Amino acid sequence: MKVFEEKQGNIFRLLSEAISEGIIIVNDKQEIVASNGAANEMFGYKDDELLGKQLNLLIPKDYHKKHKGHFEEFIDHSGVRQMGHGRDIFGLRKDGVVFPVEAGLNPFMIYETQYVMALVSDITIRKNQEREIREFNESLEQKIEKRTKELHSTILELKEEVIKRKEAENKIKESLQKERELNELKTKFLSLVSHEFKTPLSGILTSVTLAGKYTLTEQQEKREKHLKTIQSKVKYLNNILSDFLSIERIESGKATYKFSTFPLSKVINEVIYDANMLLKAGQKINYPQDIDDIVVNFDEKILELILTNLINNAIKYSPENSTIDVSVKLKGDKLSISIQDEGMGIPKKEQKFIFNRYFRAENALLDQGTGIGLNIVKSHLENVGGTITFTSEENKGSTFTVEFPLI
Ligand code: ADP
User: Fold this and answer.
1) What is the CA(267)–ligand 1 centre distance, in A?
2) pLDDT over 70 for what percent of the chain?
3) Architecture of the 2-122 domain
4) Does domain 256-405 have CATH number 3.20.20.70?
């Protein structure tokens, strides 16, 4: 390193070579007047090769113009400062390689001449590390973003799965509930059957025993009386069984309806004919008027079941010597059938429960019954778009009316 005064020069050389940063000193014309070994090595020059050269030699061409301005400005407002001010600055090696540097500037005067000493560090490694860190951070962010998205979609999938499982669970619960109800029904059926079947069966047994005792020809009338009793009790048992089968079908969702076209009078005649066997002494059923031309499209067996239930109730809950009226009305495209009796009626406060399964009004408890007839009549009617209504007054009588579309 050459400085003008030898003595100072030696001290300066000693100091500057001890420093690991590059030192470059320029005069006010930007001529390099001194450089240390670290600077020479950094920029790829031999000892003293830089002396007397323009500073621009060490600066990439693109920055020459800007640098000139900066230099002049710096000389005008001289003071120690870092070069670049937040911008990246670059050095140019002798072999043309451009590399990032960091430089601190220190102006000083010797014998009225202005110099600037630049302390220069090659920051290639740091910059590379910074870039690697930046790239690593970016890829990390991308990974996090990707994972977050994946997590999001996994959460969505999980939510859907939870919904599906809940639905499946509900279905299982529903079918379990149905099964439980069907089981309850079967238990109830067994206890009802053993209870409800006992009386008619022992009645049948008595009649059979008594009928067997009438061996003489002239005792035919007595035999017929017992045969009628047997017939009516068997009919009664048969009706209970039909009702139970209906419940089972409705409950298990297997109730299907077979619609066909038939004359209304056919079903009404059959039902009233069968009901006549159950009549108490002095009871009579009035047939509906003017129904010969009415043709309906309905499930014949279901209509039979509905009317049988209602007429049998009218008989059962009415006293001897009373009349039951069956009437039919056409209301537009609907048919309405009413069964009116002069029986015990239904107590006002119990009327709202009358269609509940197994419900039986207090005043009816002495008569045999299961409490399922009206319930299944209503269910069947609702299934085919029909309705059932009633009016009733205690000790005066009841009228049950069913209505359903003709077609
Ligand atoms: P069950 O006759 O076997 O008891 P239903 O479901 O047919 O069952 O009837 C339910 C209840 O409604 C009966 O127990 C009775 O209290 C009342 N009921 C039904 N029809 C009549 C009627 N015509 N007169 C009086 N009460 C009736």
Assistant:
1) 22
2) 94
3) 2-Layer Sandwich (3.30)
4) no
